[in-house]
């Protein structure tokens, strides 16, 4: 029977092997190995797609941004310096492509709509279950937030970015990310506790 320490060692070993494998794919892709690049796309396609959706609030634009970002990655891989982390570099490219596409499309920054564009897909079991329980209340509360607070929540809970990654994508310090996230969650809790407006009865 495995003890806790042995299990931890096994998990760390497995994670280390996966990281080494990803680093190998990055190195090979830098030398124009298309198979290695396809593996990188498969590995990171979900986070790229969700990040573009959270930033652009438009499914079509988000898909265009993701495709163009991957082209930027392919072209830019040879210039990625040795030892640099691939995921932060990738997210920086994605964020830059989103900004460029937004300007090119003369996209007006408006509050994000809490719709299926920001909700996870059917494979996100936890979110799906939560949506079934209190979906309408959560959507209504989300719509009351400012654009910045909506975006910060979408990046953290939908795109699953950590504090440092959100700061990188938005171009703001980690401390600012933490404070905005805290305020957004506070406003969400307040909105969820607020009683629903009563509907006036219609009398004949």
Structure description:
The chain is mostly helical. It is built from 8 helices and no strands. It has 2 domains: 4-104, Rna Polymerase Sigma Factor, Chain: A (Orthogonal Bundle); 125-193, Arc Repressor Mutant, subunit A. The protein has helices spanning 4-30, 34-56, 59-76, 86-104, 125-143, 147-158, 163-170, 174-193. Helix 3 crosses helix 4 (86-104), helix 4 packs parallel to helix 7 (163-170) and helix 7 (163-170) crosses helix 8 (174-193).
Mean pLDDT: 78
Computed CA radius of gyration, to the nearest angstrom: 20 Å
Please provide the count of β strands: 0
Given this structure, which CATH class of the largest domain is correct? Mainly Alpha
Structural class: mainly alpha
What is the name of the CATH superfamily of the largest domain?
RNA polymerase sigma factor, region 2, helix turn helix motif
What would the CATH topology of the largest domain be?
Rna Polymerase Sigma Factor, Chain: A
Low-confidence stretches at least 5 residues in length (pLDDT < 50)? Answer: 5-17, 107-123, 197-204
What is the CATH-assigned architecture of the largest domain? Answer: Orthogonal Bundle
Please give a handful of descriptors for the protein shown:
single chain; 204 residues; mainly alpha; Rna Polymerase Sigma Factor, Chain: A; Arc Repressor Mutant, subunit A; 2 domains; 8 helices; disordered C terminus
Write the layout of secondary structure elements.
Layout: H1 4-30, H2 34-56, H3 59-76, H4 86-104, H5 125-143, H6 147-158, H7 163-170, H8 174-193
Question: Could you give a quick summary of the protein structure above?
Answer:
The protein has helices at about 5-30, 35-55, 60-75, 85-105, 125-145, 145-160, 165-170, 175-195. By secondary structure, the protein is mainly alpha-helical.
């Amino acid at each position: 029977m495995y003890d806790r320490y042995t299990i931890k060692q096994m998990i760390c070993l497995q994670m280390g092997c996966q990281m080494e494998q990803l680093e190998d794919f990055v190195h090979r892709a830098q030398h124009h190995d298309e198979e290695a690049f396809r593996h990188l796309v498969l590995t990171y396609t979900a986070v790229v797609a969700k990040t573009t959706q959270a930033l652009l609030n438009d499914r079509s634009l988000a898909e265009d941004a993701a495709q163009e970002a991957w082209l930027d990655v392919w072209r830019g891989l040879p210039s990625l310096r040795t030892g640099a982390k691939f995921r932060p570099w990738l997210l920086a490219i994605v964020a830059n492509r989103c900004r460029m596409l937004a300007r090119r499309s003369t996209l007006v920054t408006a509050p994000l709509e809490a719709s299926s564009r920001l909700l996870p897909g059917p494979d996100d079991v936890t979110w799906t279950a939560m949506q079934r329980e209190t979906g309408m209340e959560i959507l209504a509360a989300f719509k009351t937030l400012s654009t910045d607070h909506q975006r910060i929540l979408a990046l953290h809970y939908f795109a699953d970015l950590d504090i440092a990654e959100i700061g990188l994508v938005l171009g703001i310090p980690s401390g600012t990310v933490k404070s905005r996230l805290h305020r957004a969650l506070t406003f969400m809790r307040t909105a969820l506790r607020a009683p629903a407006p009563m509907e006036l009865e219609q009398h004949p």
